[in-house]
Amino acid sequence: MKKVLNILLGILIVATIIVIILIIIKFSNNQANERELGKVLEQIKSEANINTQEAQDRKEEIEYKGYKVVGTINISKINIEYPILEITTPESMKYSITKFWGDQINQIGNVCLAGHNNYDGTMFGKTKELEIGDTFELTDTNNVTRTYKIFKKYITDPDDISVIEIEEFGTREATLITCSNGNRERLILKAREEI
Fold first, then answer.
1. Which helix H or strand E contains 141, and what residues bound it?
2. Can you give the pTM of this predicted structure?
3. What share of the chain in percent tops pLDDT 90?
């Protein structure tokens, strides 16, 4: 009996060590990605300061990990700023915030942005702290920045496609989407341009 307990204890210790190593690797990968994204944001900002057609053409071509950057999101309340990648795929979502639905950033209509709810607070990991009335900024590839104010916050089913619908026609809206409850639900934050 003692031998069986020692074997179980050994297995438990090894399993614990493996889990800790996997957590450290995941955290390290997230932090490395954050540093790379910071460089992309610096590139976008430096080109925004140059008002030539050549700079505008180059800015539209900025890519990250093979995905075109179509804008940036800045949520100062939770201290996040990310490039927005052109398309939502399982691969692109590993790297940054992605455009899930809608036309270009800051156009009339509803643009939906998706991001992982990372436990270390990266990506949309802290959006649960946002409340109705909080604001965030979206900057498009023409360096136009618009402020959006959250007017609705709710949890829904992952298959609920009504989140892509516009709430008020003729306005600019942005919907932030992230997973919740262990990926069984989605946290939705709907915002409208603050005028």
1. none
2. 0.78
3. 59
